């Protein structure tokens, strides 16, 4: 899983990435990416609202997205801040579909 230096933790950080970030939308997720010239670890944040499903479904989706980002971490540009918002269709999406969609957006915006 993603270690502490690789996670966004404050609401202000999420808000800044969503407002200033480049968007990449897919069928199940919307990815926001802000890249900076700083030399530090890439950081990820996840937004999974109640529209996606109950707590069990939301936590499952969040765990899947964390696993996908952990796999993609070596290919992401250092200093990037990424927020992934799950859409309601993510609840029924297969893991492979989520992985392909997020990997495509990360390759396009954060590689």
UniProtKB/TrEMBL annotation:
Query: Which E.C. number(s) belong to this protein?
Result: 3.1.26.5
Q: Which reaction does it catalyse?
A: Endonucleolytic cleavage of RNA, removing 5'-extranucleotides from tRNA precursor
Give the protein name, as stated in the record: Ribonuclease P protein component
Q: Which HAMAP family does the UniProt record give?
A: RNase_P
UniProt xrefs under PANTHER family? RIBONUCLEASE P PROTEIN COMPONENT (PTHR33992:SF1)
Cite the PROSITE patterns for this sequence: RIBONUCLEASE_P (PS00648)
Provide the top EC class: hydrolase
Concerning SUPFAM superfamilies, the annotation shows: Ribosomal protein S5 domain 2-like (SSF54211)
Report the function annotation for this chain: RNaseP catalyzes the removal of the 5'-leader sequence from pre-tRNA to produce the mature 5'-terminus. It can also cleave other RNA substrates such as 4.5S RNA. The protein component plays an auxiliary but essential role in vivo by binding to the 5'-leader sequence and broadening the substrate specificity of the ribozyme.
Q: Which UniProt keywords apply?
A: Endonuclease, Hydrolase, Nuclease, RNA-binding, tRNA processing
State any single GO MF term: ribonuclease P activity
> What's the source species' lineage?
Bacteria, Bacillati, Actinomycetota, Actinomycetes, Micrococcales
Spell out the subunit comment.
Consists of a catalytic RNA component (M1 or rnpB) and a protein subunit.
GO cellular component terms listed in the entry, alphabetical order:
ribonuclease P complex
Q: Where is the signal peptide?
A: none
Organism of derivation: Microbacterium rhizomatis
Q: Which GO terms describe its biological process?
A: tRNA 5'-leader removal
- Family, per the entry? Belongs to the RnpA family.
- One of its Pfam families is Ribonuclease_P
């Amino acid at each position: 899983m993603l270690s502490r230096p690789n996670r966004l933790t404050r609401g202000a950080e999420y808000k800044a990435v969503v407002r200033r970030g480049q968007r990449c939308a897919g069928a199940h997720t919307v990815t926001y990416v802000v890249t900076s010239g700083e030399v530090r670890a890439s950081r990820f944040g996840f937004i999974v609202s109640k529209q996606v499903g109950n707590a069990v479904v939301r936590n499952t989706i969040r765990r899947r997205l964390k696993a996908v980002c952990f796999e993609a971490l070596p290919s992401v540009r250092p200093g990037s801040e990424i927020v992934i918002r799950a859409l309601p269709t993510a609840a029924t999406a297969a893991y492979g579909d989520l992985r392909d969609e997020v990997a495509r957006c990360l390759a396009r915006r954060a590689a």
